[in-house]
Every structure is written in structure tokens, then in C-alpha cells.
Design brief:
By secondary structure, the protein is mainly β. It folds into three domains: about 1-130, Methylamine Dehydrogenase, Chain H (7 Propeller); about 140-230, Immunoglobulin-like (Sandwich), CATH 2.60.40; about 275-455, no CATH class. The chain is about 10% helix and about 35% strand. The chain contains four helices and 30 strands. It has helices at about 295-315, 345-350, 365-380, 385-390; strands at about 1-5, 10-15, 20-25, 30-40, 40-50, 55-60, 70, 80, 85-90, 100-105, 110-115, 115-120, 125-130, 140, 145-150, 150-155, 170-175, 180, 195-200, 205-215, 220-230, 275-280, 330, 340, 350-355, 360-365, 405-410, 430-435, 445, 455. Strands 22, 23, 24, 27 and 28 form a five-stranded parallel β-sheet that branches. The radius of gyration is 27 Å and the shape is flat.
């Protein structure tokens, strides 16, 4: 019997297992994989979580297993399993022959994956092994931990072990200059005779690669994998950040002096049409259902309520003296509710509990708004909406006008500015709606791959 607590109640998904040994859930495919011992033979059954039906069964690659430590991978239909000779196996649930990896020298008690990095638990330690990468003859050691976008990390290179000098080797980030670059700075050898190089991360997130080739022959010397995240895991110690290239400094205005009488009138008039982008965001521990029509209708009703309020208090559409403001209305950007957009982070990664005060609740971490901005910008780019709606300048790495950037705010405080004095021109405002509400009116983010950052 396979049971999962959906919505607080325990529900039976599948039955008729003889001697189940291990379970892993592939969230991306909406299925669970169960290793079952059927009359002495191990079998991997793939079960659709929506219907409870067995959609595939595989026995190849499981015949000689004496244990059942398994983990899902980033590739749908692929498992990592622990073999009898202490090795890790790549098991294809479509029936292709398994692929054996290196032996760990001890029984594997458990497996987990972080992208292509396999973590194996033995009786004495945890092994971290990169899967499916050709390293080459040049030893390059990169840190296992993530690097922050626009941050940096140092890689240790043993040139002498490959019979090379630093002048023989060229380092680049394989995915291109927008993904990262290698500093031209040269450091002296460390105590072990190895050298450090500094790798600068760009604006792309995910798994990237540091490539080393021979300057003369073009031979592949090393290929190392590193990971870039826009959600830094440590709230107390900030990430290493590299400041490169031309920087733009925004000076704050100050109050002082001036003639008698009212001043600064309509310096930043309220927009005639406040375009609002409503975006449904879900986290990995609480996804939206398959049908979100009711959710989108609810948010359209909320926006209509805000529109009626703005039009009423700003006297929208009414006649007035010459030169008087014409009022403000609110419209749905692109005429649709965007999403859902799934983030690969949990609730605790993005929110902190507020344990004091009248209302308690949850406060969004600063990095969560960056995550929303990255995800929404990528969503628009993938669908060609960003270019057609002038969400940002065309082409990568070009600066953006702040009047064209979506302004990120929390869902419960989207309309807090006075319609007569709210800043800016007509522009979309992004309402990031998750499965749970949060309270934080300010935000910051990044538009697409552009280097310009923006703040409310």
C-alpha cells in the first residue's frame, strides 16, 4: 500500500506490493518509483500519483542488488541505485541497460541528488560524486557549494600534475560570457604548489561548467561543474559578490530651501493606466493544482476591485479644470494571469516566521523576490512576451529603462500608493501570488538577463 497525506488526510494511492524496500518520488513527472521484492526478484514500479496505476515496471539492472538505496535524478525516468559492489548505478526505467559508476568502497545506506551531484551515505561518511562529466588530465578542484549570481569562487589547479604551466592553459565558462568568466588575475602558488584561479558567475542560474583547454592544440584538459543560485542559503553570512565593469550610482535627493508656497507638484504624476502583471508562483512543497482557472478568476476579481477603488478616489473619467489630473485606472498586463511558475525551493527557503506582533504570519526573505524576478523574466522570454510588450531592451546584457520594468510587490499590498501621488509612468506591476500569502510591500529583482537592478 502506498499512501500520501494530501490536504491533511491520508489517501491510498496504490496497493498490492509484496515486499517494498524503497520509495522515491519524481515530482517533475508526478509519479513514485517503488522497489519491490517479488518472490526474491527486485522490481522497479513507476506509479502515477494522480491515478494510482502502474505505468512501467523494470527488472533490468536490479537482479543482483542486495539493498535498495535509490534516488530520483534531474532526468525523468532515471534512477540512481546502489549496486552490490559498492558502486552507484544509473538505471533507465525505460528498459535500457544500466550504467555502472565508480565504487565507493563501502555499503551505500542512502542516496540523494543535487542536480548531477550524487550524494551517497555510507556507514562512515558521505561521498559526493559528479555524474556524467569528462574531467581530463588536469586536476581542477571546484567547491561543492553554490555560487551566487554575479558572485565568484576560487578553483584550485594542479598544473604540475599534468606537466603544464599556467601559460599553457585557457579557462572559460563553457556556457558563454553571460554565464560567467575567468579572472585574468594571477596568484602565486599555494603551499602545495598549486595555483588558484577566480571564476566570476554571470546572470544564469543552474549547473554550469568550467572548461580548460590547451592554448596551442585545443585539447580538452579539464571540465568541472559548478552551480549558480539566486537564493543564497545563509541568512547571516552574505555571498561573495564580484563588482565588475562600469557601475551606475543613483544619487538620492535631499530636501532644503526653495521659494515660499507649494513645491514639487506633479514631479512624478500618477499614471493614467496602471498596468498590473499578476503572476502565480508555487514552491516545491505546495504546488498549484493542474486546473488553476478558479485561482485566476479570483485574482481577476481582486484586480477589478482595486481598479474600481482607484477610479473612484482619483475621479477617473470625470471632467475637471484644465491641466488637472485625469485620474488613474488599473488594467491587467497582457490581458491574462501569468503562470503558474514553479520555483525549485521550499517554503522555509523563502520565508521566515514572524514570532511577535499582533498578526504573526510570514515574512518573505529578500532573495525570494530575486527568485520571482528571475523566474518571471525567464517565463516572459521563453514565450516571446518580453520583446513584444517592451518589458526590457532587446538583446542580452543591454541596460533597461526603469519605466519599462515590472515592479515587484507582495500580493496583499499591491495598491498602497495614493492614486494622486504614486510615482512612475504607465508600467506593469507584478503581483506574485503563491500558495500562501506573505506581507512585504518592497522588493527588488532583475529584468531578464539585463544587469540593471531595480527597487521599489
Amino acid at each position: 500500500m502506498l499512501q500520501f497525506p494530501f490536504s491533511g488526510t491520508l489517501q491510498t494511492v496504490a496497493t498490492d506490493f509484496e515486499n517494498p524496500l524503497a520509495l522515491v518520488v519524481d515530482r517533475s513527472q508526478g509519479c513514485a518509483i517503488v522497489i519491490d521484492n517479488v518472490s526474491g526478484d527486485l522490481r522497479a514500479s513507476t506509479i502515477d500519483l494522480a491515478s494510482g496505476t502502474v505505468v512501467a515496471e523494470v527488472t533490468s539492472g536490479l537482479e543482483d542488488l542486495t539493498q535498495a538505496a535509490i534516488s530520483a535524478t534531474i532526468t525523468p525516468g532515471i534512477l540512481f541505485v546502489a549496486g552490490p559492489s559498492h558502486e552507484i548505478r544509473w538505471l533507465d526505467l525505460t528498459g535500457s541497460p544500466p550504467v555502472a559508476g565508480p565504487s565507493l568502497g563501502a555499503d551505500v545506506r542512502g542516496l540523494a541528488c543535487w542536480g548531477s551531484l550524487v550524494l551517497a551515505v555510507t556507514s562512515t561518511h558521505v561521498e559526493a560524486r559528479e555524474w556524467g562529466i569528462e574531467k581530463g588530465p588536469l586536476p581542477v578542484q571546484v567547491p561543492l557549494g553554490p555560487v551566487y549570481v554575479r558572485g565568484y569562487f576560487r578553483a584550485e589547479v594542479d598544473f604540475a600534475a599534468a606537466g603544464l604551466s599556467s601559460a599553457d592553459v585557457e579557462f572559460v565558462v563553457k556556457e558563454g560570457p553571460t554565464a560567467g568568466s575567468v579572472s585574468a588575475g594571477v596568484e602565486p602558488p599555494n603551499a602545495a604548489g598549486r595555483r588558484w584561479i577566480t571564476v566570476l558567475a554571470g546572470s544564469e542560474i543552474g549547473e554550469l561548467h568550467l572548461l580548460a583547454t590547451h592554448r596551442t592544440t585545443g585539447e580538452l584538459l579539464a571540465l568541472s561543474r559548478f552551480r549558480v543560485t539566486s537564493l543564497w542559503p545563509n541568512d547571516d553570512i552574505g555571498p561573495p559578490v564580484a563588482v565588475t565593469g562600469e557601475q551606475q550610482v543613483f544619487a538620492r535627493g535631499s530636501w532644503g530651501g526653495g521659494p515660499a508656497g507649494p513645491q514639487n507638484i506633479r514631479i512624478h504624476p500618477a499614471p493614467d493606466d496602471w498596468r498590473v502583471a499578476v503572476v502565480l508562483i508555487s514552491l516545491k512543497d505546495n504546488r498549484f493544482p493542474a486546473n488553476v482557472d478558479a485561482v485566476k478568476t479570483d485574482w481577476k476579481d481582486r484586480l477589478n476591485s482595486a481598479r474600481r477603488y482607484y477610479e473612484e478616489v482619483s475621479y477617473f473619467g470625470t471632467s475637471g479644470p484644465a491641466g488637472a489630473p485625469s485620474g488613474t485606472t488599473v488594467s491587467l498586463a497582457d490581458g491574462q494571469i501569468f503562470g503558474p511558475i514553479d520555483l525549485d525551493y521550499g517554503w522555509g527557503d523563502c520565508f521566515d516566521p514572524e514570532l511577535s506582533g499582533l498578526w504573526f504570519g510570514w515574512n518573505a526573505k529578500d532573495a525570494f523576490f530575486d527568485q520571482c524576478a528571475f523566474a518571471f523574466s525567464g517565463f516572459l522570454q521563453d514565450r516571446g512576451i518580453a520583446a513584444s510588450r517592451r518589458a526590457c531592451s532587446s538583446g542580452p546584457m543591454q541596460s533597461c529603462s526603469s519605466s519599462k520594468l515590472p515592479r515587484m510587490t507582495a500580493s496583499r499590498s499591491a495598491m498602497k500608493h495614493s492614486p494622486r501621488s504614486s510615482p512612475g509612468r504607465s508600467r506593469p506591476e507584478a503581483l506574485f501570488s503563491g500558495k500562501r500569502r506573505f506581507r512585504r510591500p518592497s522588493a527588488r529583482g532583475r529584468c531578464c538577463s539585463c544587469p540593471t537592478r531595480f527597487r521599489q
